[in-house]
């Protein structure tokens, strides 16, 4: 088992014992999808790439990739953003 996996497992156990939400304790993004027209991402690390057909967002240990058409960014805050448009896919890398 890799050190990263051990570290994550320990954090998860501690968060369960202390009843701390996983997105806070494990540095996970919180993603809310409203149908296929709006997507909120909380706890992001920045926008890596943007076009009307795709958005790449850095999150704790990887990236979230949104593909669609007529995509626009709304409410870009230090730890929260909103993507609107016609969303075709959502992928984690």
Molecular structure report:
This protein has a single domain, classed as Immunoglobulin-like (Sandwich), CATH 2.60.40. It contains two helices and six strands, in the order ααββββββ. The longest helix is centred in the first third of the chain and has 16 residues. Strands 1-2-6-5-4-3 form a six-stranded antiparallel beta sheet, with no helix packed on it. A hairpin with a 3-residue loop joins strand 1 and strand 2. The chain is of the alpha+beta class.
Topology:
Blueprint: H1 3-18, H2 22-25, E1 30-34, E2 38-42, E3 44-51, E4 54-59, E5 62-77, E6 80-92
Antiparallel strand pairs: 1-2, 2-6, 3-4, 4-5, 5-6
Distance between the termini: 20 Å
Number of separate helices: 2
Q: How many domains comprise the coordinates? A: 1
Percent range for helical residues? 10-25%
Give the number of DSSP strands.
6
CATH architecture: Sandwich
Which segments are poorly predicted (pLDDT under 50) over 5 or more consecutive residues? none
Query: Based on helices, strands and strand pairing, what is the structural class?
Result: alpha+beta
Strand order of the largest sheet: 1-2-6-5-4-3
Radius of gyration: 15 Å
Estimate the global geometry from the Cα principal axes: elongated
Instruction: Please write the string of helix (H) and strand (E) elements.
Output: HHEEEEEE
Largest β sheet strand count, sense and barrel closure: 6 strands, antiparallel
Average pLDDT: 87
Query: How much of the polypeptide forms β-strand, as a percent range?
Result: over 45%
At the fold tier of CATH, the topology name is Immunoglobulin-like
CATH class descriptor name: Mainly Beta
Protein name: Sporulation protein YqfC
Pfam family, one: YabP
Organism: anaerobic digester metagenome
